Hints:
This is Phosphatidate cytidylyltransferase. It is found in: Cell membrane. Pathway: Phospholipid metabolism; CDP-diacylglycerol biosynthesis; CDP-diacylglycerol from sn-glycerol 3-phosphate: step 3/3; Lipid metabolism. Keywords: Cell membrane, Lipid biosynthesis, Lipid metabolism, Membrane, Nucleotidyltransferase, Phospholipid biosynthesis, Phospholipid metabolism, Transferase, Transmembrane, Transmembrane helix. This protein is about 75% helix and about 5% strand. The chain is globular. A hairpin with a 3-residue loop joins strand 1 and strand 2 (about 170-175). Helix 3 runs parallel beside helix 6. The protein has a two-stranded antiparallel sheet. The protein is mostly helical. It contains 10 helices and 2 strands, in the order H-H-H-H-H-H-H-E-E-H-H-H. It has one domain (about 1-260). It has helices at about 1-20, 25-45, 50-65, 70-75, 80-100, 105-130, 135-160, 175-195, 200-230, 245-260, and strands at about 165, 170-175.
Amino acid sequence: xxxxxxxxxxxxxxxxxxxxxxxxxxxxxxxxxxxxxxxxxxxxxxxxxxxxxxxxxxxxxxxxxxxxxxxxxxxxxxxxxxxxxxxxxxxxxxxxxxxxxxxxxxxxxxxxxxxxxxxxxxxxxxxxxxxxxxxxxxxxxxxxxxxxxxxxxxxxxxxxxxxxxxxxxxxxxxxxxxxxxxxxxxxxxxxxxxxxxxxxxxxxxxxxxxxxxxxxxxxxxxxxxxxxxxxxxxxxxxxxxxxxxxxxxxxxxxxxxxxxxxxxx
Length: 265
């Protein structure tokens, strides 16, 4: 527990400093985290990061991860990132034929899904921080909602939890805890908004709070399902007492794309 607390304090402080710095430093920092998260996924699948499939997976993830401004500086042809990613998928499908299925359709699916999951998740985190004037507050707001949801769900679940939320994936989570986490997030989020009104209206703020709280919990369950599927306790051991990067950022990288796709931020 002591190690977990020390790691949590140091890790949180370091991340907050990077968010405050913003710019290319934050983007580079997040790119490193995303690369570590991708390696964790590869190891879950028992794929060597320096193998052909591992390298293709990391490069595909980076294609989706890098900010568009970075991409435009190195790409002289008029192709978008999505168009190149689609081309990569078609090439991977071609490999299933050329390798006579030693490189399988399932492995193509792994490369595509893991690249989208990690690449887009961290990409939208970078995009959010880069929003002029409000980017810093938006990142802190979403982080606060996710942390409050986790804490609220934990304490309410311990005190009142009786009905399991999804026992096959996460046996300790309860429906009561989940609802308690959402309520706690709403209270804390409204207090934050009353001091720093970063949204156009309270209704928008409430929508962001509820979406971030609900999908943050779903993001946690998605990663739990991944770990159960691959029979691992933690995604990695980069953070002593906390596991891997995916263990700590699973909710955030799931929430950020959804908030952007719903045009809430």
